[in-house]
């Protein structure tokens, strides 16, 4: 059995002070994918970088205080890869992956975008480069008998059921028609939306809520944190839960952990 969580921590050092470490201590996860770490590895206290019983790998951004991804695993990885072979994004803190005995796990923080700005252009370039990499990753992993799981903040709500206020967000980054089509292309390339497959007929379950207004209290959220898995691993998924905080005050990020159990 393999249990994997993914969480955009919104600053790992801040999250550690607010409750991340307490959550990790009680987590049953074997692997935890982190996004928006926002710190160099040597800036993290040892109990945050690699808590007892965990192996931590990190890919910081060259822009200080921005982005950054990491993966915590209870088993030491056999290899680590930072980036996906596209020069523009090699040091952007957007992607890191590890090899475990039967699975390659990636932690992704896809750019958020902003319509009509360079941020959206960057997101578009990332998407154009990342999909071919996903295809090649799946093909190479299959040769060695491994499955692939790419977890993280994809910053796109794929379907209307993936965000509360979809009608008013159709011209906003994260729910643009071509972004949604791109996600469809990902899921047509040999990958699966694990959480949606286990929750086919519901709205959500949302994983991000704005800090503004009453978004969290009203459950006015977005489902943008995905487990994207190859067929063999996706077929083993037995449960998927968004670990939503009980109250606004108990949140340690504007995202919540998304945890999936992959049974034998």
Please describe the topology of this protein.
Blueprint (H helix, E strand, L loop, with lengths): L1 E7 L3 H7 L1 H7 L4 E5 L10 H4 L5 E5 L9 E5 L5 E4 L12 E5 L3 E7 L8 H26 L3 E7 L23 H11 L3 E3 H5 L26 E6 H4 L2 E6 L15 E5 L2
Parallel strand pairs: 1-2, 7-8
Antiparallel strand pairs: 1-12, 2-4, 3-4, 5-6, 6-7, 8-10, 9-10, 11-12
Enzyme class: hydrolase
GO molecular function: double-stranded DNA 3'-5' DNA exonuclease activity
Family: Belongs to the DNA repair enzymes AP/ExoA family.
Describe the protein:
With 264 residues, the chain is of the alpha+beta class. The chain has a single domain (2-262), classed as 4-Layer Sandwich (Deoxyribonuclease I, Chain A), CATH 3.60.10.10. Helices cover 24% and strands 25% of the residues. A six-stranded mixed beta sheet has the order 3-4-2-1-12-11. Helix 4 packs parallel to helix 5 (177-187). The radius of gyration is 17 Å and the shape is globular.
């Amino acid at each position: 059995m393999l249990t994997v969580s993914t969480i955009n921590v919104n600053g790992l050092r801040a999250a550690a002070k607010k409750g991340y470490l307490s959550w990790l201590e009680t987590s049953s996860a074997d692997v935890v994918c982190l996004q928006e770490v926002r710190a160099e590895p040597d800036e993290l206290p040892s109990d945050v970088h690699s808590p007892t019983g965990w192996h931590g790998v990190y890919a910081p951004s060259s822009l200080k205080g921005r982005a950054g991804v990491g993966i915590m695993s209870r088993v030491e990885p056999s290899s680590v890869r930072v980036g996906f072979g596209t020069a523009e994004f090699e040091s952007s803190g957007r992607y890191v992956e590890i090899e475990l005995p039967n699975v390659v796990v990636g932690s992704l923080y896809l750019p958020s975008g902003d319509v009509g700005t360079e941020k959206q252009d960057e997101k578009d370039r990332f998407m154009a480069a990342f999909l071919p990499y996903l295809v090649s990753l799946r093909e190479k992993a299959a040769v060695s008998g491994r499955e692939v799981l790419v977890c993280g903040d994809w910053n796109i709500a794929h379907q209307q059921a993936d965000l509360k206020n979809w009608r008013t967000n159709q011209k906003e980054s994260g729910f643009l028609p071509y972004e949604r089509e791109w996600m469809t292309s990902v899921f047509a390339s040999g990958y699966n939306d694990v959480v949606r497959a286990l929750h086919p007929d519901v709205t959500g379950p949302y994983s991000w809520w704005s800090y503004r207004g009453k978004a969290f209290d009203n459950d006015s959220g977005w489902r943008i944190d995905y487990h994207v898995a190859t067929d063999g691993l996706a077929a083993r998924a037995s449960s998927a839960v968004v670990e939503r905080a009980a109250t606004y005050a108990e949140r340690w990020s504007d995202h919540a952990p998304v945890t999936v159990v992959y049974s034998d």
